[in-house]
Each structure stands twice: as structure tokens, then as C-alpha cells.
Amino acid sequence: MSETVRRMKINKRYEGQPCQWCGGLFLLGEDGAICAACENPYHARCWDKENGCNNPGCVNRPLQQLKDVAPAGAGVAAKPTRPLSAWEMVCPTCGDIITNAYCFRCRNLSPSDYTGPKQTLPEAKEALKYAIIGIFCFGFILGPMAIVKGTSAKKKLAMDPRYEGEGLATAAQIIGGIVCLLHVVNLVVLIGGVASGE
């Protein structure tokens, strides 16, 4: 029988990422649980409390109790149990109270549902900074770093509608690629000049 969860101490790979149940960030050395089927990370306490994975399509998702199932056509109960603050709203999918229109329980990621303010992802800015500096110096190091950072920023942007900056990440990838290409051409010219004896 295969395991449904891989329990571990949170390492550098997962540090700073959000738990898929509670949304809290992982701290280094904390008890963690990684779903064996879909690789989503959770706090061990959240996995145990919720009895499984939060991914709607995962085989390790806990079965819904009959008392939680609404009759057909009833929809989600949208009555909050307390007054909502300015940044809170009720998730249209699961009915939980959420902030910034992003629900960690049902992983509602639709950018069209999010109407709050957006911030530029710092990683996209950093990728573009590496690419531009790479044009003038250390391009053989900063060019590939800009490409990797830009790709990572695009993945984060696709997952979280609260951030913007896809254009910055794309620009970083393109400039980083050009910088790498220029350094390869320069290296070929230098090697060609040495080989011909000039």
C-alpha cells in the first residue's frame, strides 16, 4: 500500500511557501506534510486536522461529510458569521471568509474574481534588474540568472492574482537571453582570433 503523505521537517525548498490549507507560511524546521499524489505542501497539523489534501482533484482529498453537502440548487451559504472588515469577503465557491479575494481552502485562483489592488512581484523587478546590469557587466552570470528569475516570477504570477509584472518577467527573460547570446558570440570570436594567430 502506498503512502498518502510524506512527513518531513520543512527545509529550504519549502520555507516561505504557503500551506495549502491555512495559507500560513512555512518556517524552517517546522513539521510539514507533502501530499504523495499531487506534491502540495501542508503544515502537518493542518493535514491532520483536515484529514487530507486540499487539492480538489487529488485522490487524497478528504470525503465531504453529508451534513456539509447543500441540496441541489441551494448554492453556497454566503452569510458571514461576523461583520466583515474592508479587505474581507465571502468566497463564492466554498463560503469561507477570505482576504484579498484569494481562497486558500478551495484555491480560487481566477484573476477575474480578484478586484483588489495589485502589487508588482518583487521577483519580476529583480529579474529585470539582473538582465539590465548583465548588459554592462557580468552578463555570463547575470543573463542566466535573469532568465531563471523571470521564469520563476511568471510561475508565481500565474498562481496568485494579487500580483502583476508579467511584462517585467518576460522582458528579463528576453534581455537575459540576448545577453547570453552576445557573450557566446564574443567567446566564439575570441577563440577564433586565438586559433588564427591574430
Notes on the protein architecture:
Helix 2 runs antiparallel to helix 3 (139-159) and helix 3 runs antiparallel to helix 4 (166-196). With 198 residues, the chain is an alpha+beta fold. The protein starts with a strand and ends with a helix. The longest helix has 31 residues, at 166-196. The chain is elongated. Strand 4 and strand 5 form a beta hairpin. The chain folds into three domains: 5-50; 74-117, no CATH class; 119-196. It contains four helices and seven strands, in the order βββαβββααβα. The strands form three sheets. A three-stranded antiparallel beta sheet has the order 1-2-3. A two-stranded antiparallel ribbon has the order 4-5. A two-stranded parallel sheet has the order 6-7.
List the helices and strands and how they pair.
Layout: E1 5-9, E2 31-35, E3 41-43, H1 44-50, E4 88-90, E5 97-99, E6 119-120, H2 122-136, H3 139-159, E7 163-164, H4 166-196
Parallel strand pairs: 6-7
Antiparallel strand pairs: 1-2, 2-3, 4-5
Helix pairs in contact: 2-3, 2-4, 3-4
Helix % is 25-40%
Number of domains: 3
Rg result: 23 Å
Distance between the termini: 68 Å
Q: Give the spatial strand order of the biggest sheet.
A: 1-2-3
Number of helices: 4
Secondary-structure element string: EEEHEEEHHEH
Which structural class fits the helix and strand makeup?
Answer: alpha+beta
Let me know the average pLDDT.
Answer: 80
Total strand segments: 7
Q: Which overall shape is indicated by the principal axes computed on the Cα atoms?
A: elongated
The major sheet is characterized as: 3 strands, antiparallel
Kindly report the oligomeric state of this protein: single chain
